[in-house]
Amino acid sequence: MKRINVALLGATGAVGEEFLNILVERNFPYANLKLLASPRSAGKKMVVGGKECIVEAVTPDSFNDVDLAFFSAGGSVSLEYAPHAVRAGAVVIDNTSAYRMEPNVPLVVPEVNPEDIRRHKGIIANPNCSTIIMVTALKPLYDAARIKRIVVSTYQAVSGAGAKGMEELKDQVKAYVAGEEITARYLPSAGAEKHYQIAFNLLPQIDSFSDMGYTKEEWKMVKETQKMLHDPEIRITATTIRVPVFRSHSESINIEQERKVTADEARAILRKAPGIVVQDDPTRQEYPMPLFTADTDPVYVGRIREDNSCENGLNLWVVGDQIRKGAALNSIQIAEYMLANQLL
Ligand SMILES: NC(=O)c1ccc[n+]([C@@H]2O[C@H](COP(=O)([O-])OP(=O)(O)OC[C@H]3O[C@@H](n4cnc5c(N)ncnc54)[C@H](OP(=O)(O)O)[C@@H]3O)[C@@H](O)[C@H]2O)c1
Q1: Active-site choice (53, 120, 129, 230)
Q2: How far is the centre of ligand 1, averaged over its atoms, from the C-alpha of 267 (Å)?
Q3: Domain 131-322, what fold?
Q4: Known catalytic residue at 249
Q5: Which of 25, 190, 248, 283 has the maximal Cβ count within 10 Å?
Q6: Known catalytic residue: 195?
Q7: Do 95 and 75 meet the contact criterion of CB atoms below 8 Å apart?
Q8: 117 C-alpha vs ligand 1 centroid, how far in Å?
Q9: pLDDT higher than 80, residue 1
């Protein structure tokens, strides 16, 4: 297979490190791999596939001789450097929210809308992690009987807020066990006016507040899903919650479809679908849990039930590792699709 020059911006972050693991695991065909971050990490040594690599501080010239650049260093960094990367001739797969709703930028989950990749003009966006996990599970049901309405509540792991989110939960649990005072410095987000304890608590705020009292995270789930399904009519309402779990997001999803899909039919459809594992046997207490789905690739679906309160409704419990399928793995799958279809 053709070998390409790859850059990873945000290499030292929670998602960046997972990118490196997955590139090695999947034997991604890179010739050179350039690790980029902020000046804080310049000179840091990281081992990739047994080889030591030195992290460089990103500059506008970092993308000369790069064919493919994965961006995962926050929205403002993408807005600053993606135009330089595209001008240098690289394709950017952006894991931040910077370009997701731009009409000229395809927003892609390979199991959902891979054909959109072909429309790219240099940048392809990776959706929000909670959205990826939800649409991967719902697309096969959407194809079977369209979905008219989605009501989703999320239970999102602290690693969704990056390496600092994980540190905060660890520090607070240690302080609690040691009988020390618990301090909250970071969550619900660095930029928030107030910070609240996450250990032994739930935070009903992810990202900042926006229109109609919804958070930006909640609106991302609505708008990104409509964009990827090419269905602006689908009605979606979301409530996103941070929970004291280290890794893997969980989602309680209720859907209303155009015709009745029974729970058995839904299980059969989902069992055949790519990227999904059905884990659903109440008689044996089998259902997905974030502790056991962390560090794995699939999106797991369980607790599939017909909604007793309306005609064509289903309830599902969906869990997936948001750093793998919700971020790094999805970006790498986009790149693999491009390579397999001579688009790179
Ligand atoms: N965590 C998740 O579950 C998840 C899921 C989907 C999408 N995302 C998105 O992925 C991106 C990264 O998230 P993360 O969780 O990996 O965050 P993180 O752990 O805080 O890591 C941030 C990374 O960005 C780099 N960075 C920060 N400011 C920079 C700058 N000015 N110039 C260059 N590099 C800079 C950091 O480098 P230094 O080490 O030098 O500071 C680090 O490598 C975010 O946009 C996030 O919204 C995260």
Answers
A1: 129
A2: 36
A3: Dihydrodipicolinate Reductase; domain 2 (3.30.360)
A4: yes
A5: 248
A6: no
A7: no
A8: 24
A9: no
